């Protein structure tokens, strides 16, 4: 058992967990597609492609269009020039700022572990004025590995003072990638239900689920007390 002594570190996924960024990602994807003379994709299509990082996003976009796989590298480069500071359509989920503030006030070290590249991650945290709440930020290009490999999440917990090989803490995420990452790292996960998950809740390993960040501080305290 990984005993979580208070204050317990809490690490968050970003896209689909703290922020709804799919509209900005969708807009950037379609800008690139228009430049290629390709019909735009729908928001629901692009939302379903989010979670595995930019490379996987574009492999899925290519699979949904007539673009050649050989164009992948150039498409990613074109996308990144637009995605780096794309925040106009992104929104924090309700009560995120308040929940983060409560956890920080209670002494919980907070971190980010996302497959989003580090540059856009820092840009959106700065945009919403919450960057200072996080003691560490691990992006999709911070390490050779990406989620669901446990290495990025373990690195985040280690940076917050937890043992790297047997981390003590809680991961908060929304997707299949996040559930698998938490399981691989051996930490409990709290599942946010309003994100980009495609799998039924009962089919994902998680300690508890919630649909409003106002519920999160009490869930964190409950999991920390049990573990």
Question: Would you give an account of this structure?
Answer:
- There is one protein chain.
- With 227 residues, this protein is α/β, with parallel strands linked by helices.
- It has helices at 22-35, 43-49, 54-64, 72-83, 96-105, 118-127, 151-159, 176-185, 216-226; strands at 10-12, 19-20, 91-92, 110-113, 136-138, 170-173, 189-192, 208-210.
- Helix 1 crosses helix 4 (72-83).
- Helix 8 links the parallel strand 6 (170-173) and strand 7.
- The chain has two domains: 10-20 and 91-226, Rossmann fold, CATH 3.40.50.1000; 22-83, Putative phosphatase, domain 2 (DNA polymerase, domain 1, Orthogonal Bundle).
Topology:
Layout: E1 10-12, E2 19-20, H1 22-35, H2 43-49, H3 54-64, H4 72-83, E3 91-92, H5 96-105, E4 110-113, H6 118-127, E5 136-138, H7 151-159, E6 170-173, H8 176-185, E7 189-192, E8 208-210, H9 216-226
Active site: 13
Function: Specifically catalyzes the dephosphorylation of 2-phosphoglycolate. Is involved in the dissimilation of the intracellular 2-phosphoglycolate formed during the DNA repair of 3'-phosphoglycolate ends, a major class of DNA lesions induced by oxidative stress.
EC number: 3.1.3.18
């Amino acid at each position: 058992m990984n005993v979580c002594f208070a204050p317990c570190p809490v690490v968050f996924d970003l896209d689909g967990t703290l922020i709804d960024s799919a509209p900005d990602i969708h807009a950037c994807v379609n800008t690139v597609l228009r430049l290629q003379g390709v019909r735009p994709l729908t928001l629901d299509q692009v939302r379903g492609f989010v979670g595995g990082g930019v490379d996987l996003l574009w492999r899925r976009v290519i699979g949904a269009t007539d673009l050649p796989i050989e164009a992948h590298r150039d498409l990613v480069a074109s996308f990144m020039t637009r995605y780096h500071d794309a925040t106009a359509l992104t929104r924090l989920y309700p009560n995120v700022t308040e929940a983060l503030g409560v956890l920080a006030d209670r002494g919980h070290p907070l971190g980010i572990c996302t497959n989003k590249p580090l540059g856009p991650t820092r840009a959106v945290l700065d945009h919403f004025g919450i960057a200072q709440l996080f003691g560490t930020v691990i992006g999709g290009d911070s390490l050779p590995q990406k989620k669901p490999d446990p290495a990025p999440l373990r690195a985040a917990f280690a940076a917050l003072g937890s043992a790297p090989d047997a981390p003590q803490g809680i991961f908060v995420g929304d997707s299949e990638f996040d559930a698998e990452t938490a399981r691989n790292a051996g930490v409990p996960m709290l599942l946010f239900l309003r994100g980009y998950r495609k799998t039924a809740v009962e089919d994902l390993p998680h300690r508890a689920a919630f649909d409003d960040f106002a519920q999160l501080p009490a869930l964190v305290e409950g999991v920390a007390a049990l573990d």
